[in-house]
Amino acid sequence: MIVAVSDSGPWLVVGLGNPGPQYAGNRHNVGAMVVDELARRAGSALRTHKARAHAAQVRIGTGPSGVPGPAAVVAVPSCYMNESGGPTKALLSFFSVPAERLVVVHDELDLEAGTVRLKRGGGEGGHNGLRSISSSLGTKDYHRVRVGIGRPPGRMDPADFVLRDFSPTERKELPFLLDEAADAVEQLVTLGLLEAQQRVHAPR
After folding, report:
1. How far apart are the first and last CA of the chain?
2. pLDDT tens sequence across 43-83
3. Annotated site (Discriminates between blocked and unblocked aminoacyl-tRNA), which positions (predicted)?
4. Rounded Cα–Cα distance for residues 18 and 81 (Å)
5. Domain ranges in the chain?
6. CA of residue 176 relative to chain centroid, distance
7. d(C-alpha 103, C-alpha 12), whole Å
8. Which of 16, 37, 114, 156 has the most CB atoms within 10 Å of its CB?
9. Who contacts 196 (Cβ-Cβ below 8 Å, separation ≥6)?
10. Which residues are part of the catalytic machinery?
């Protein structure tokens, strides 16, 4: 018998970023922005959690016949990016979510700005947040929603680029990007990875 994705227990969706208002508009914080959008859609707000995170229990997306989608915890670690693994592991344990039902939303230098891609497993591509999570969990086999921010112009250091705010031009497009990435998370947890990839990766 084929069991629907939504029948297999809750999900944990973690959006990566750095804490504090000075980082809030950085490209590196786009994962956290997507989780804020998911919480907004669910009519909820992130609240402080003892796992060094801000989290909310929600329903994500809409299932068949308009019923609420799968149960999920959406969260943003309240520590710096390179310490994201500890809070993520603690949240998985607290809410009894297996690593295969973890979705990490993060910025991706190797994708054109405005592009959203889904995958499971693979390397971290130099991303300190992913590296910390993989190290803490002892596995790389979790889902990722990769939000493209593009490569830095000229000879700018990638570390400087990701820690700068989106440009005025990018900020105009940012609401659409956050919407698309939040849609991708919803499709991943309601439809499963393969069908979600077919939809999200389809040519526009």
Report:
1. 34
2. 999 999 999 999 999 999 876 677 888 999 999 999 999 99
3. 18
4. 5
5. 8-200
6. 16
7. 6
8. 16
9. 118, 184, 187, 188
10. 28
